[in-house]
Amino acid sequence: MINDPFPVCLTFDLDAEAGVVGRDAANADRPVALSMGRYGPNTGLQYILDLLDKHEVKATFFVPGWTADNHTAAVAKCAKAGHEIAHHGYHHVPPTSFANAEEEREEIERGIEAIEKAASVRPTGYRAPAWELSPHTLGLLAGLDFTYSSNMMDADGPYEHELNGDAKLLELPVSWTLDDYPFFMSRPERTAAEVEEIWRDEFDALREREGAAFVLTLHPHVIGRPGRLAMLDSLIAYIRHTGDAEFFRCDEFAQLARA
Ligand SMILES: [Zn+2]
After folding, report:
1. Which of 13, 89, 134, 242 has a C-alpha 20 to 30 A away from that of 4?
2. 19 alpha carbon – ligand 1 mean position (Å)
């Protein structure tokens, strides 16, 4: 095998209502739109935790600070089950929407505080809402002692960012292809079976590339629907049956990749 083990990271962006409002501020006054986001922590999440438990998989939850403050018990439950709680902004607005680096730093710090309060851990990983980094983001993360970013789309596996001075930040690259949102939330919607086939193809082919990793981005209010979750169950079983793949939390994988 080229990669033994072949690293797999299941990541869940627990956007909740913050994702809905972050996408369009007018949604703050739309009860049904808000309820779509709330499906994540209120309904989908428990089934996801049960599924991860069944397969003995530890995952990473990227959590906006707003979600940590407003769905504290749900976030604490993820941490208590052994999953990583990582940073996903505070209000779920992309870093590009801030006027300057100072405003952006305040938002990141507010998110850290909220996660520390809800989960009793300081996040070491960061994923920007909508994967929109500003020119300041990576430097800010390194200055705030983050160890990895999971945002860029220019590689099949982890690499080190080149930052000023001796600042270090590992990148765990992502891809829109390995994300549930475009397939299930943007029209035309794909069937779960179609998406499973796309993800299996990517998994099989990535496994043959040296230094590659399979980083899947999921959203509890999207993948948490029953039919889609059955597909995730099947996909995890498929990944397991290959024998050479291993599931990691992103922070653990970042540590391993660095070593
Ligand atoms: Zn998000």
Report:
1. 13
2. 6
